[in-house]
Amino acid sequence: MMKRVRTAALAFLAATTIGWAASAISARSADASVPILLYHRFHPSVSKWATVTTPAFEAQLCWLAEHHYKVAPLASVVAALRGGAPLDPMTVVITADDGRRSQYTEMFPIVRRFQVPVTLFVYTHAIGHEPDALTWDEIAEMAQSGLVDVQSHTVSHPHFDRERARRRPADYEFFVAAELAQSKKTIEERLNRPVEFLAWPYGVFNLDLERAAVEAGYSAAFVVGGRPARAGGDLFDLPRIVVSDADRGDKFERLLPLGGGGAPVASNEPLASCAAHGAAPASS
């Protein structure tokens, strides 16, 4: 069954790769940008919005490998965006939100096999408590691999616009400050590593929230924007592109409107071929 699912996923990518590759090549320009991909859940066979099948994720990494893309650590890309350094147009970033257990059971084995860096944004209240959430032991194992960086997605994943509407101003300010500071503190204490990035729950962002994030000690934050992150933009409003298996037009081959040029940011070497990982590569 898994073999048939994988074959179907690879066949789909093979049929659509040419258009994506042409788009990526034509987008090379002096306007530095990097697509930051956003995943949520993974499943061996179930495909729906915010859930990517395991064979599809493997096929996506295969495609990136075969076409010489570099998967860069999020921190190195943020540093380049902050400093105005040039970005390699063949660079992408992989992130995953919410701290769902499939990120350990389905995503992590593939990440480890392909040796690509990933950033997890977790909301701490869920960890070890919600049935579908990671445990701290699982998070620590992934972090210790050197491939997985863990950053904040607040404490309880609130919708800040709704919270502002139902709370008094002073209460709301206290609530925001606690959500941002406590999640950062918890992750740092659990993993003994610094936390400097924040993913805004539901993509809700405004300048008041940015000020609160700065006061809490964050240096950058991320929304859902459907476009690449570009140098010169607000570092607390950096967009990410949702990757989903749902039939809603967000096909993987159309998710990388790459731009940029010049020297690459620090990243892993071009990945080995898919054949080395026991998977047939998507053809171009």
Briefly, what is this?
With 284 residues, the chain is α/β, with parallel strands linked by helices. It contains 8 helices and 12 strands. Helix 1 (2-26) runs parallel beside helix 2 (54-66) and helix 2 runs parallel beside helix 4 (102-114).
Folded structure, characterized:
The protein has 284 residues and is of the alpha/beta class. The chain has a single domain, classed as Glycoside hydrolase/deacetylase (TIM Barrel). It has 8 helices and 12 strands. The strands form 4 sheets. Strands 2, 5, 6, 7, 8 and 12 form a 6-stranded parallel sheet that branches. Strands 1-11 form a two-stranded antiparallel sheet. It has a two-stranded parallel sheet with strand order 3-4. α4 links the parallel β6 and β7 (118-122). α1 (2-26) runs parallel beside α2 (54-66). The two termini are 25 Å apart.
Q: Note the gap between the termini.
A: 25 Å
CATH class: Alpha Beta
How many structural domains are formed by the residues? 1
Order of helices and strands: HEEEEHEHEHEHEHHEHEEE
Largest sheet: 6 strands, parallel
Content-based structural category: alpha/beta
Overall pLDDT score = 81
| CATH homology-level superfamily | Glycoside hydrolase/deacetylase
How many helices? 8
Apparent shape: globular
Low-confidence stretches: 1-30, 257-273, 279-284
What is CATH's topology name? TIM Barrel
Strand content: 5-15%
Radius of gyration: 19 Å
The number of strands is: 12
Helix percent reads: 25-40%
* Architecture per CATH nomenclature, i.e. the level-2 architecture: Alpha-Beta Barrel
